[in-house]
Every structure is written in C-alpha cells, then in structure tokens.
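ok here's Prolyl endopeptidase, seq below lol
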Amino acid sequence: MHQKAKFFLQTLRFGIARHGKYTQQQHDHQQFIDCCPWIKVRKYHNFKCLQNKCKKSISARTITSRRFSYMDLLNMEQENTKSLLINYLDSMEKFKKKIEASYDKYSLIMDNLEVMSGLFCIFLYVLGINSCEVLVRLEELSLYNAFVERIRISPGEEYMAASIKTSYSEDSTCVIVKLGKYPEVEDFIPNVFSFEWATDGILFYTCQKNLRCCNVFRTSFGNKKHTECIYTEQDPRFFVDLHCTSDKCFLTINSNSKTTSEVWLVDCHQPWNLPVLVQKRNSGIMYHIEHRNNELYILTNFGEPAEYKLMKTSINSCSMKNWQLIYTLKRKTKLIDLVMFKDHCVIFLKYCNQLYLNIISLNDHSIQSLKLPVWACACQLDTQPEDSSSSACSFQLSSPVHPPRQFIYNLVNGSLYKQAEQEEPIITDCHMARLEAKSKDGTLVPVTIFYKKNSESLQKRPLLIHVYGAYGVDLNMNFKAENQVLIEDGWILAYCHVRGGGELGLSWHAGGCLNNKLNGLADLEACIEFLHNLGFSEPVFTALTAYSAGGILAGALCNANPRLIRAVVLQAPFLDILNTMLDPQLPLTIEELEEWGDPSSDNRYMDYIKSYCPYQNIRPQTYPSIIITAYENDQRIPVEGILKYTQRLRKVITDQRHSRGRKMPNIILDVQAGGNHAAASWEDLVTEVCQKFSFK
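and the structure came out like this:
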C-alpha cells in the first residue's frame, strides 16, 4: 500500500473510535508530468541510478546535527503520538479496503500522462505503434517515493532530459538521455529546478540551492561537452526559472520576486549569443513573454486597472514604452492560463468564481468569450501540438467531486467538444452552490460548497472547511476521489476563497497580504458564521483544514474565535511567522518580505504580525482538537517551530484543565520521518485526515 495511504490510515484513528459514525476514503497518490504527448511513464520495479547522489541528499538532512533539546522534544512528541493512536489499530483495517477501492475506481479516468509514486521506467511510445521502447531504467533505487517531475525532448528528438525527484528532498536530478537506435544515459545534472532545450545538444537549466535559484547555465552535449553560467541574479528576493515560447523560437529567463519581474531572451537559433533584456525591472510590475511572427506578446499588470493585460511589441523594440494594449481583464478576474496559437490567443480565467474561456484574435483583436460548464472549478491545460497551425485547444475540467473531463475547443468554428462519458459517470447526487459571505468590512467573499442532494437535517451534518489565503494562490479545487466518499457519508465540503488568495485576481491577493492580512481572518470567520446561519452544520460538527501558509489563518482562528470549530487538521503548517520573518538566515525569509512585511526593520510590521501570529497569541481558553502533520526534511516550515507551537499550546491547555477541571482536547503532532514540504500530492492528504473528526 502507498506510504501516503498508510499515513492516512494511521492518522484516521485520531477521532474515529471516539466519535465514529462517518467514514472516508483517500485519493491515490498521483503525479502529472509536463511533457510531450508521446512520453509515458509507467510503474516499474527495477531502478538503478542516482543511488549515491540521493543518499547524500538524505543524509545531509538527517537530524543528527540538531540540538539535543530538539531531539528530546521530537522523541517526546513521537512517543505521545504513538500512545494516543495505538488504541485505534482496528479502525485502520476498517477503512483500508474502502480507500484502496477508491484508488482503483478512478485511476483509469485520470490524466493518462501520469507518474505513479514508487519506482519508474521511462518509455517512448512511437505514434501509431503499440510497442514501446525503454529509454531509461532506474534500477535498484533505494528511495520509496521517487517520481518523474518533468520531461523535455530536444527539437530534433536527439536528446531527452527528465528530472527525477523524491519525497525526501526538494532537489531534483536531471537525467540526459541520448536518443536513437540504442538510447543511453549521457549525463546527470544535480539540483536542477527548470530546464529547456534551445537546439539538439544545447540545454539551458537553473540550479536550486537552499530553495533559491539564481544562476542559469548553458551546457552542450556530444563530443565537446561544455558548461558555463550565462546569467546570475544578485537580489535574494528574486527567483529564476526558464520557459520556452510556444513557437520554440526563444527561451525566456524569468527573474521574479513576489511583486516584480524581469525577463531576458535567448534566441534558440543562436543559443551562444548573450541573453537580451526585454524590460528592466520596475517595482510592482510583473510581466511574462510569449512570441509570434517577430512580435512579443506580454502578459503584465502594467497600467490601470491593476489586473493582468495582454500587450504586444516588436521584437526589435521591446521596452515598456513600446507596449501596445490588446486586452484587459475585468476587475476581480483571475487569470488561470494562456496559450498561443498561430492566429489566436486562448486565455483561461475565472470571473465571479466561474470559469471562462476567452479567445482573442491576433489579427483583428476581436474577443469571443465562452462560459465553461457550471460544475467546473479547476482547469488544467493539456500539452498542445507543437504545430502552431493547430486549430484545437485541449484541456481538462474538474471539481473537488467531479473527475477530470477532456474538452477540446475548435478555433475554426468556435465550438466546444467534450469527450464521451467515462465508465465511471460524474457524480449525480451531489449539489454544488456558489455563495457569498459578507465580511465585517462589507466585502463579499466567495464560498463554494458541495453536499448530498436531499440530505435531511443539514444542520446536524459534519462540515469540512478548506482555507488557504496567501501568495495569490487559489485553493486547490482539483478532483480528489475521497471527496465523493465524504459526500456519500453526509459531509458538507466548503471552500472559503478568502482575501490573500488569488481567486478574484491580483487585487484580491493585495487585499490579504502585508498589512491587510487580518482581512483573510475576518473573511474566514464570516464564511463559517454565514454557513452556520444558513443551516449548514453547526460549530460542534465543524472541522477546519489548512495546508502550509493556510495554517496561519487556521491557527489565528483557533486563537481568535475557537467556538466556531470543533477540530482542526493542519498539514505542514506555518505557525510561527514572527520568529521566521525575524530570521534572515532561513531560506525564504528575504524572498517573502513582500508577502508578510519586514518586522526586523519596521516596528509597524512587527506589531501587526505579532497580532495574528498563531504561536504568539496562544492563551488560556477552550481550543478545538488539533492534529498537525510535520515533515522532518521540510526546509520551508522547519519542524522546530511546529514543535514550539505544539508544546506551548499543550502547556496552556493542560494548565487550564488543572485549574478549571475542563476536558482536554486532543493535540497531536505527527512528525513524519523523511518527506519535505513540496512532496508530491501532499494537498491530497489534507481532506483525507478530516475523517478523524467524525462526530457522535
């Protein structure tokens, strides 16, 4: 059974035996690869490569270098977790079959470009031929959660580059394979983050160190192998990655902070030339580049309103003063994705929490808008044909309870086509509603809910609240097989799109970051109270789940208004934000100053962050039950901070219980050996653990 399934079954025991009534299944651990259509990855049981390099990566992050006091606390927590969970072993078996059945039920209808957890072999499928050719066999790999992250084929199909990653580290190793009659591995490049081929045999790539990418390298393969650094970013707020334009004419070197962009161009026909700057960085201006017919198409927030716009300019005069406006998004519109075709630009966007497709003619700049199916909550763009004259745009739509469905938009006749029904039909007995809750300043906050039709007494049904609200990132609304099981068992699922996230565009993010962060907390409170007032559950049946930076709002709610919820599930949560932002030696502190503010140089931010920091605001009161999952190798959210939070919270609760004779809620910290913050499919685990909070 997959490691993540085992984790779910283990943590499932937390509340089931005490309150057991409702049950849940888990979604399979799946990965999707960003690659050419004919590359497939399938499960394989023999690997032999990267073993030494991966072992070094793991050993470098073992806990032997940590303080002895930290080790003591960690051991105490692990023993405490075991003692609390040991009584629920029978519950594990109870749900094991249901979880495995859930995996099997939907595995065949998920994206066919799928990377399973475990051990892999990479195949090249020749179009029109059923047989396949083994390109890389990674045998005897002593890692348990390795997966292929990305694949790139060189323009003439002479080389393949594939990045291999494990759950133990955020570092990837790039495998270079020389294609041909007898494919062979030519090289390994460690610590690679992004990579693109300029021509056959010339690869550009970035390397990640301490979660930062600042250098771009160019390397050539063949008889005269040569590697050199061709770009270095000096500002630690900026992160560098690579992109290839849709027409394969240019590579873009993208240097981005949270609020500002700078792009350099590499001509794929002249890859030995120095990169050319498009537009010097200007504070607060973000932009991204595509290319067509010697013109640059720029997606940018430059100008008013402060939302994304599509602009263009000649490749020979690419500075900002020459940018010409083509299209502007409406206010409170989320731009999801963009793809260029020969005569059209297709933009996927979200407006009023509904998905749309906007098709822009690149000849006369006319716009056609198409509302996508009302049930759709998430969109994933497929790899498009390399032929720029293609007239079809392929993509998938899904929701938390609807499996991905394939759609094709025909650019010639303007028609939208969907694939035939799958063997497993879309769920038919689940009702979906898009609502709006009024926050305390009058702002309307979108809420998406799912519940079983004809459910009796919704007020007595368990409610699972999802929240994130940071970095301008949307809540994950992709399909998860376990959500259907939750619906069948009577759960109400609610997704609160609070400020700080990106659901309503750039202004929605700005309204919930820096000195506006408390808006996100007010939004979350308003959403929960709104649902309760409408008759969707009540506090005693309500659980809250959050991941990573979403832990700030979840932890803040536990301090500010714990009466609204009974239980909280936190996955790799950010809980000690003040001390984190005061420590510039941590990998992401400087990079994230534009999101949270700088408490070390500005007392206003010091006081403001302190006012909502979950760790700083723990106080004697009645807290909900809380289970936290942390990961030993997490570079983004160090375990030490989570340990401190758990110890302080448990002490305050224990002292209060002794003084007032109150029942003590469960506070569990499960520190997973191995794993890291970016481990594949962690978000798929968040809803899985909600079953721990089945109520009487």
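fwiw The longest strand covers residues 212-220. kinda neat tbh
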